[in-house]
Amino acid sequence: MEILTFSEEQLGAYLGQFLWPLFRVMGFLMVAPVIGSQLVPTRIRLVIALAISVLIVPVLPDMPQVQALSIQAILLIGQQLLIGLSLGFFLQMVFHTLVLAGQMIAMQMGLGFASMVDPSNGVNVAVVSSFYLMFITMLFISLDGHLTMIEILVQSFYSLPISLEFNFASTSLLSITNSISWIFSSAMIIALPALTALLITNVAFGIMTRAAPQLNIFALGFPVSLLLGVFLMWLSLPTVAESAINLFDQAFVRMEQLTNKQ
């Protein structure tokens, strides 16, 4: 009876065929919205990463031949983790855009002090930001955004195949940096209608206080600003949903540009 043996090159090829894609998928799921939140246990995320890797490995291009325990293998692991983290970063920025917009509105309507723990990130955010975060999460799932982001992740193995060369384009790295300004500008555009209405209300209360100093601006202005802010949030939900869909489209486009080597 012959014993089945493998050489070091064969063992590295078999393991690399599965491990290199797994590290990119794991890096993506670490920061991707919904799946990468703290609400999803680490074991569940690991099972999802293993399942995705097993399903996509048969259709992926050929993997580089790298020894299992070598400096090249460590560098390749770091490269795949970086690519996965960068892809998930753009989608996570869309969710933080709505959180920032909610923070702006909360400060203007007098709810800046009212904060609660965000269960997905484990940090304190304004109540308005938590509302927008839950709203955009439900919108993202209802639009099959979680399936689209996995599809783009699989396509990245063709546009940016696994290689020993760090083939990130300079425009891709610049796109990651420009995402910071994209967050602030998008959040300001979403929150601008409510901020404008609340600012006009505060200016009107200021004029009333100057005209009639006997009025208690704190007792009168805070309830009115709070009710007006809640009304504006309800009134602007269709616009926020449309803006969120546009942000999703932009994030998916940025993800595809990130893996474009041209």
Topology:
Elements: H1 8-31, H2 42-56, H3 71-109, E1 115-118, E2 123-126, H4 127-142, H5 145-159, H6 170-211, H7 217-235, H8 237-258
Helix pairs in contact: 1-2, 1-3, 3-4, 3-6, 3-7, 3-8, 4-8, 5-8, 6-7, 6-8
Give a nutshell description of this structure.
With 262 residues, this protein is mainly alpha-helical. Helix content is 73%, strand content 3%.
Beta-strand portion reads under 5%
Provide the low-confidence segments as ranges.
none
Number of helices: 8
As for the number of domains, it is 1
Write a concise keyword list for the protein shown above.
262 residues; mainly alpha; 8 helices
What would you note in describing this structure?
The protein is built from eight helices and two strands; from the N terminus they run αααββααααα. With 262 residues, it is mostly helical. It has one domain (8-258). It is elongated, with a radius of gyration of 24 Å. The model has no long low-confidence stretch (mean pLDDT 76).
